[in-house]
Design brief:
The chain has 532 residues and is of the alpha+beta class. It is built from 17 helices and 17 strands. Strands 6, 9, 10, 11, 12, 13, 14, 15, 16 and 17 form a 10-stranded mixed β-sheet that branches. It has a 3-stranded mixed β-sheet with strand order 3-4-5, covered by helices on one side. 33% of the residues are buried.
Amino acid sequence: MSLLTEKDRPVVQLLMDTDTCPRCVLRFCCVASQTLYRRPYKDLMKDLKEFLKNNKEKEDTVCFDIADPPCKRIRLEHTEGPGDVNHNGALQQIPSVSDENAAMENSAVKACNVCLGILQEFCEADFVKKVCQKVNSADYQFTSFVFSVSLPPQLSVREHAAWLLVKQEMGKLGLSLARDDIVQLKEAYKWIIHPQLSEELNVPADGKSLFEVSVVFAHPETAEECHFLATACPDCFKPVKNKQSVFTRMAVVKALEKIKEEDFLKHFPCPPSSPKNLCVALEIQCNNGAVFVAGRYNKYSRNLPQTPWIIDGERKLESSVEELISEHLMAEFKADSFNFSSSGREDVDVRTLGNGRPFAIELVNPRRIRFTAEEMKGLQQTINNSSDKIQVRDLQLVTRSAIGRMKEGEEEKTKTYSALIWTDKAIQREDIAFLDDIKELKLDQKTPLRVLHRRPLAVRCRIIHTMKSEYIDEHHFRLHLKTQAGTYIKEFVHGDFGRTKPNIGSLLNRTTDILELDVESVDVDWPPTLDN
């Protein structure tokens, strides 16, 4: 039960006379009963008119019975049009409703001059079913939902005008009305529509849900109503990236907070005029929060980049590690797109062996989100059967926050490599044996020439923890290295024209070059090892 008191009578009369819908009337009377807003529209209209008819001596309050079943369709009664607007800053007298009985019988929907129909037609069962049909046809997996709504920015202007109108009326009674006292339109709308969507979709509404159902409303007829604010408060309207118009809701709200009441009333009618049409629902969209899949990959090809190799718009190689893994994940999760990340990266001609390199893939807006451990194992096998260039292991679902552990390893952990090295001068076993005794060798590595086009010029201090040489013949040996993550191994071998100091060439006093490089381990303890 909710009560309207005698002090609300002038406000109710004023708003009803200006074609304001009953739910907006309740909002401006600061009624915060969620159940009351969910009552059938026709019953709310009837009760407000009965409230106005009540003789003050007979009854000072009106009670709304909230036990009525919901109606199937909106029936918004006709009222007389609002009075003329004085654009010199004065609020003119407004004629009252002339024939209530005739209005109750008239079934035409007349758009509210404040919410432009949001709390009218778009709260009804037909629109709820339309939203749910869109959700169900999109074939998402979800166990709850969060509902969001985007309203036309001019609604804030109309609400501001209505607030000034009501505030002046209450001032006559010695009462005040702060802007924040009014029940927000979005809040009232969600009170009404949440239970209906929840019942139709058979899942609860949850503000923390990763599945979002959103509706974007527009009202072309009044689209230019907020433009006068750009002249009055130009500082509030700056071009915003990815926004087609400077008249965003936030910019309009900011301007309304700054503009003086007298300046506002010079440019905008108060009460706001009655629109000819209701709002339209421009978009009904669904979006699932991202799902994250992690694992480790081995790369066995010396002709495969980690990510697509495209230079000046031209693709150099037909595939990549990223694509060989993600194409199967995209298909199974039915996602819109993906983002690939890993603990470091190897060059196109470098293999990754051992237990592999940790990676994670963010799957954006997936339709399917639930996979059992067995299903993930089957998906891993599908990836491995599709190519002999890569293999994945420990494939699993992870959280966004867990990915941070993988990124820590890019600079903080150690990595082990195996390099096949050529020397211009002949060598014997004893010529390279001393390398095995070098520990914690500090390098100064200037940004390599080969990556200078995409990395800033800098000198980076890196450490070679240990080395173990393996003699092959007079001009070849293999070097096993354990290094600080982020060390440029190729440059450590050949010196990069003196940009890496010291280097294998300077240590051996010979010209050296690297013929093959393998990553043997990436010492990041993530993701957790599974029984594969």
